[in-house]
């Protein structure tokens, strides 16, 4: 049915009048003032690609993709390990602890100081049959199993008194050639569990959570890689977004206590929840406008009472941050819009939002980061954006 412009306007108006104004599917967040660049998210000893963050009690855990030590001349050296993690701290007022004069072999920096004992081994262990003898998953035939965490761990259990935490990460088992081409465009997905006893369980603040591989093939290559494109937890339900090679974004849900139980999952297909998992290329799986196609972050905003995606547009390389919102994880999502553009002298990607860096539930703002790849290595600027 074709809608005339006036009937379309009448429909939009009735949608707006029917509910909370912020719940209209046309809600477009607008930036207030000029975003501030606060510095870099930086580990003085590790050069790291593509970091995301999760709040773990009184600290934030950052997980990153390929990581390398800095050599004495400030340039990254071997070994490459396919993932790393680290902690960052808060000020006593709940804002992230931005420090100046952070000393590293590549100079002095201002930003958020990352620390933690990685020991040059992958934070997410490489499955044994995926060239795990090499810390980067590199094989003798020059191919590579690139076990890159694209989404930070999703916490489903946290005990405020002990700081003990349990969280989950889904990682596609990307098998790539030396020119970074995927041998299987829709790789299977592994499920990892991240466990932490809390700072009280360990006298060493540098100790990182432990990680176990729960299931090497949790999703097969014939299924959407749910959880590798974004996820969130609201009211005891985990929502997992997955994107296939063709750009389709699908959605699954599971009770937060049943994450490792495959039979407890439901999938959003043809506008309804079903227990039958769809095929990776099935029609009726895509959630329209649930993102602008590139990498980003999903979260629930209590201040807007809306679900939010912030990230990059597909097939773009500029510093254009997009946002879209929806009243429910399955939509309807508004058309994504560009709300902030960052200038860089390198290639920016892995656009991330960091809801875990906000301590005050009434703070109408978000922290953002992105990765810049330069000939001297990677760095991760951090920005603070206030909304109108
Ligand atoms: C962030 O890192 C880049 C690359 O190392 C550097 O040029 C820049 O000065 C750093 N920014 C701050 C605020 O330290
Ligand atoms: C969570 O559950 C409470 C109690 O049922 C409800 O009032 C609230 O709207 C729910 N929140 C969301 C985001 O669904
Ligand atoms: C799904 O589509 C992709 C192209 O986007 C194709 O390469 C792949 O073989 C298809 N997978 C299946 C199981 O049909
Ligand atoms: C797994 O989920 C199914 C479906 O919800 C449920 O019947 C079963 O009890 C769950 N298994 C466990 C071990 O909780
Ligand atoms: C890929 O997506 C396009 C629309 O964006 C669709 O026409 C095509 O059938 C899809 N291909 C597969 C293999 O699903
Ligand atoms: C930016 C974007 O992806 N817009 C899409 C929103 O959804 C409508 C309906 O599916 C598409 O036509 C737009 O291209």
From TrEMBL:
<protein>
    <recommendedName>
        <fullName>DUF4185 domain-containing protein</fullName>
    </recommendedName>
</protein>
<keyword id="KW-0732">Signal</keyword>
<feature type="signal peptide">
    <location>
        <begin position="1"/>
        <end position="18"/>
    </location>
</feature>
